[in-house]
Write the structure tokens for this entry.
Amino acid sequence: MKITKLSLIALLSSASMLFAQSNEDRSRAQRIDSTNRAQGLPQTGNSGKSGSASVAKSDTGAQRPVQLRKSGISPFLGYDVKMVYRSNPLASAGKLKQLATGVWTHTFFAGAGLGVFDFGDAVVTPYVGGSWSSNEYTETNLQVFDYYSTGAYATLLAQYSNGWSARASVSYASDSSVKYKTEDYSEFYPNIGIMKAYSISSDTTAIFDASLGKHEAESFVLPFNGATKDQLSNWDASLSYGLRHKYGKLTLSPKVSTTYKLYDDGNNKDRDDWVNSASLIIDYPLVSDVKASLLATYTNRDSSGTDQNYDYKSWDGGIGINLSTRF
Amino acid sequence: MLKFLINLLLNAVAFATAFLLHAATAPRCTYLKDKVETVTHLENNQTSISSIETNQTIGFGDLIATGSGSRAAFTLPSTIWRLGSMSVGKWNTPTSFWIHSGSLLFCTEKEQTIQFAAREASAIFSGRGTLIIEALENGGFKIIPLEVEGTLTTEKGGTKDLISSRLLLVLGSPTYFGDAYDIDLMLLLKSSRLINAYPTALPTMGRIGLSVYKQDLKIRGKYNALIGDAPTKEKLDIWALSTDEEDGLDVESLLQN
């Protein structure tokens, strides 16, 4: 019975995947400050190289001292850059490849876990965070659509001992035109979700996720023919299933997801969409807190309920570098 | 004659009940790896050494000894006990275990009051949880809660809340608390044969997983050291990690033997 067959790693995975917290492993040669009372320096009866024999003598296991935060508040920040080929950047109906372009995306993000609250069978952690990114098309004809994105979120995450986690979250997102300096889209997105992560094998963790939310959107529209600012608002319900497979230093993360969206405003009244996607991300750690990624995503939207044809398909593929650190 | 038969029947029922009750409260061996022996003290001041078999019940006061690479698991009502290799210990009562050397895992989902004793030190655990006890060369013991809701009481140190993943030294007679160290729980679990070398999972693995998750949220850094034995009450072996071990301990090599 290997521990890797159990839910431990799955539980850990769930937290780190949700909030991109790095699994830091910083070694510090300092005095351990972990007792309930003051202590002098420990007297060492032996020192030098550990040697497996000395540690393996006992069945207890390796006892490596760690330093813990007293408050449980854990800020993190990072930077992410991606260069992605996008086959259908304007999500136009018809062929898979239309106005294909490369897209540079630079994202800065920061956030913090605001404490760790133990309720016996559950651990609750509030998170807040925000991000800013620039999105630049390499195709000259599309550069008028370059945009900045801003996002912020507040999440309450409860992790249960059975491997399930539940979350309630509200996020804000905004897109503004680089060229015209106008905010073209913004939304509030209150949502709830559940997630279950479990080990399939010693190297593979499966993650099931379900969520439900309401996008309260405002977008720039020309006020003709019944168009309204809130016509992009929608309810959505999503299911996804993914794997995280360790292969040497590589982490392979294939994932499929399906989302149902229901619109009820303006020209989108009675519109409903099915958005299905399949993706693969391969991460490779370059140094501590820095990883390189290969990304590929295929997306298909099947829309109905309106005269306008909103169906589209597209695929993205590219590379990225992610730097993320936790304090 | 009828009265005699009734008395005989009543006595038989009483003895059978007593036997069954004893069997129900006596430690029963549920898993064995290699040879594990028990040493029983006989009435004529002699001892009898025999190999333990699976499903055998162990008498209170009988020593249990494991050799290199041998291990055993036992159950008592609502509790699971695992004795590591190269360990010697005994139950004095269903709620009192004495460990001479080696390591022991204790697991319960229900509130219990258990006395853990070593050659010199002794402490009373009240609560529920999954604990590893390791005997020290100085006659005391380490207690490492993998997940816990409970307290530990010593004669001289009073009562202290146990904290998951915080190793606590229990020393001396009268017994007091020694130093405490937060330790890398995930590494301990990966490298612990008290967890990995048994065919069944502990019923508290979910809670242990939550302890790992909680520690991961709070972890700030790891020291380049491993804690070892304590040859005296004043000394604790701290093994420095070599440079090539700092970024990731070789768990497989720790699991060998």
About this structure: Residues 1-54 of chain A have pLDDT under 50 and may be disordered. Chain A touches chain B through 68 residues (CB under 8 Å). Chain A has one domain: 10-17+68-326.
